[in-house]
Amino acid sequence: MPGLSIIDLAMFLLETPERPFNIGPLILLDPPARARATFADRLVAAMLRRTPGAPFNYRLRAPLLGVPSLEADPDADPAAHVHRITLQAPGTFAQLSAKVCELHEAPLDRSSLLWDLYVIDGLEDGKIALYGKTHHGIIDGRGFVQAISNWLAVSPGDRSVRAMWEGVPARAAESAVRASVTGRLSGLLSKVRGTATSAVGLYGMLAQQGLKALGVRGVEGMSLPFTGIPRALAGKASSKRSFAYTSLPIREIKAFGKANGATLNDLLLVSLDIALARYLEERSERPGKALVTAMPVALANAGGGNQIAVLQFPLGAPGMPATKRLQAIRAQTEAIKRVVEKSSSDTVMLYTTLVHGLPAMAEKLGLKSGLAVSNLMVSNPFGFPEKRYLMGAAVEMVLPVSVVPAGQLLNVTAVTLDDRLQVGFLAMPEAVPDVDKLARYTAEAFDELIDARPSPAAKHAARKSASRVHEGVSEVVPYTRKSTDSRKRARRTANQI
């Protein structure tokens, strides 16, 4: 019987109508012109011939006395979990987004398989959308990317049809590393080796954070949880969601990052930070100190399930120019990496569960003020470095639709597809009105960062031309105003169906 990790269990126990733990992809397909009229129905029929695999064949077993667990259903039938929807004309992206938010808001039925797939037609230009809603307690973002990668083909000539629910291969380390909740709780009571070590490690992390808060020189660590978080993007928890997206050019991100010693995540974070500053300034809500973000970090030595740490750190201070903001954020992400490297997986998972569990418990108890963990959550669970296809249809978009956990009201999740970094924004609309504006500002902030004064190495990279990858060496379009305009045109195209 599959075990639940500490974080898996928390996702089931702390779920509320306002905070459903649903995640899943929103995929946009462009079927061949001659096959569009019947494509959606033929795709459903072909997928239903595929057998569910782990974790999509799991059911939740929740005894009256004892700890919940997962069990594989040998008779799992996907037919009851695949739904057809047709949008009314004109079938715009706004209509699709509203429908997906409506579906995403409702918790899944725990008495059945913990997922649903919606196949949606009626879109402009005969396109088809797929939305796969799955409980986060059975799969993490990295695992879901693997499941989607197995689902989608890498060649338009590959007409074989697979399905989301075929699952992912078990990780080799799962049996050794992923202990069940029952085992972990028993270990806590008996103080077995490993549990005690995790507790000591947790005390050490909190001690480092306390020393940093006191301003002790030379102390590196994260800020104390629930402290120093400005009041921004705040509001009352609600079941309602709004969704928007943008996309950024991978080649330019990587070239600029390499020239400036920054990662893709660093550049995403600084673009978001610049965009948020503009967004809050327009609303007269810009805080007087740095926003705080939460960032999931995959644990390299962990097994299956949700084996992640979600850690918090400040972004750039108000008024910082783009280049200084990048330096500040890069320093913070490097410090977070060192914290994870120095701590065991169990320690940071225990820390994550406690820090994110307290705000959820406060909401369940009806405390009006709640506990803020951060102003937003930002994650980037890998992606797809090449074009993808399904039954001959080109995949135009794979957008992540994720969770807005307690203590936050905005989730930003990025996934790569071919030469674009797709960025999805899921928000509670009362806290983040006009989330589509924030998505647009993020793309414009990336342009601002690229057009800021680069380092000498960046200037050298900018003088290179062409936009192809040849024998493993990538070249970038020059960073000129003309190329900036081209980027904006590309984004406008990407944001249309």
TrEMBL record:
Keywords assigned by UniProt, alphabetized: Acyltransferase, Glycerol metabolism, Transferase
All residue ranges annotated as the O-acyltransferase WSD1 C-terminal domain in the record: 305-449
Reaction catalyzed: an acyl-CoA + a 1,2-diacyl-sn-glycerol = a triacyl-sn-glycerol + CoA
EC main group: transferase
Domain of life: Bacteria
Pathway given in the UniProt record: Glycerolipid metabolism; triacylglycerol biosynthesis; Lipid metabolism
Positions of the O-acyltransferase WSD1-like N-terminal domain: 4-267
EC identifiers of the protein: 2.3.1.20
Bias (Basic residues): 488-497
Pfam families associated with the record: WS_DGAT_C, WS_DGAT_cat
InterPro entries the UniProt entry points to: O-acyltransferase_WSD1-like, O-acyltransferase_WSD1_C, O-acyltransferase_WSD1_N
Residue ranges of the region described as Disordered: 457-497
Homology family: Belongs to the long-chain O-acyltransferase family.
Protein name (database record): diacylglycerol O-acyltransferase
Organism: Variovorax robiniae
